[in-house]
Design brief:
The chain has helices spanning 7-36, 44-55, 60-70, 103-116, 145-155, 178-187, 209-224; strands at residues 80-88, 92-100, 120-121, 131-139, 159-162, 169-173, 194-201, 205-206, 228-233, 235-236. By secondary structure, it is α+β, with helices and mostly antiparallel strands. The protein has three domains: 7-70, Arc Repressor Mutant, subunit A (Orthogonal Bundle); 80-129 and 202-236, YebC, transcriptional regulation domain (Alpha-Beta Plaits, 2-Layer Sandwich), CATH 3.30.70.980; 141-192, YebC, transcriptional regulation domain (Alpha-Beta Plaits, 2-Layer Sandwich). The protein has a four-stranded antiparallel beta sheet. A four-stranded antiparallel beta sheet has the order 5-6-4-7, covered by helices on one side. Helix 1 packs across helix 3 and helix 5 (145-155) packs across helix 6 (178-187). The protein is globular, with a radius of gyration of 19 Å.
Length: 240
């Protein structure tokens, strides 16, 4: 019988993935602080980025250094925000948000990923119209639907979506109401398991078999690129 990866190999893989997550969060903290100032109380984007850092056990010292580099108190690298749009196999729309200090490298990496898995990079605006920006507060299966729904309505949320397959709940808000709704839900004793401002497609495209596998590989490859912060698609990949 073959042996699986050693404990050391598994640990190294986990450490490598953790390092990638840290890199992405630190870049987001830096860009948010540079754009809106280093005080999270007056900078919702920075506050959200700090929350992401704390959620992955990033130390407050690391977060503070990232903010100071962005605001000029410490020397640091400046990152630029870039969005790429394209299509995966099966006509699946994909948006890739990046933070980079080298646009030439980043576009080459993103274009390579699309080409490698049978997709193609599009022009600005080619798929963005299929998505809308919104705040999402997610509650795991087992959350009290009535309590969440009542509190969300009182907080000014736009919609509450309950998924019948497992009972998970999403509370949806306008982007500019996200922080207020999240604070109100937390004050009601209903802190979400995940909260973020994200992009969601108006309509999903169902793909199966080999096409679904190619789409899945493309999305994973893009997410693993150091310069990529977020990947959005309208793919419905089923349960696999």
């Amino acid at each position: 019988m073959g042996r699986g990866p050693s404990i050391e190999a598994r640990k190294n893989a986990v450490d490598a993935q953790r390092g990638k997550i840290f890199t992405k969060v630190i870049r987001e903290i830096g860009v948010a602080a540079r754009a809106g100032g280093g005080d999270p109380s007056g900078n919702p984007r920075l506050r959200a980025a700090i929350d992401k850092g704390l959620a992955v056990n990033m130390s407050k010292d690391v977060i503070e250094r990232a903010i100071k580099k962005a605001t000029g108190e410490l020397e640091g690298v400046e990152y630029e925000e870039i969005r790429y749009e394209g299509y995966a196999p099966g006509g699946v729309a994909v948006i890739v948000d990046c933070l980079t200090d080298n646009k030439v490298r980043t576009v080459a990496d993103v274009r390579h990923a699309f080409g490698k898995f049978g997709g193609n990079l599009g022009t600005d605006g080619s798929v963005a119209f299929m998505f809308r920006k919104l705040g999402v507060l997610s509650y795991a299966p087992g959350a009290d639907e009535d309590r969440v729904t009542e509190a969300a309505i009182d907080a000014g949320a736009d919609d509450v979506v309950v998924y019948p397959e497992d009972g998970a709940i999403d509370v949806l808000t306008a982007p500019d109401a996200f922080e207020a709704v999240r604070a109100a839900m937390a004050a009601a004793g209903l802190a979400p398991d995940l909260a973020e401002v994200t992009l969601r497609a108006d309509n999903d495209i169902s793909v199966e078999g080999e096409t679904a596998e190619q789409v899945r590989k493309l999305l994973r490859w893009l997410e693993d690129l150091d310069d990529v912060q977020n990947v959005y698609s309208n793919a419905d990949l089923g349960d696999a």
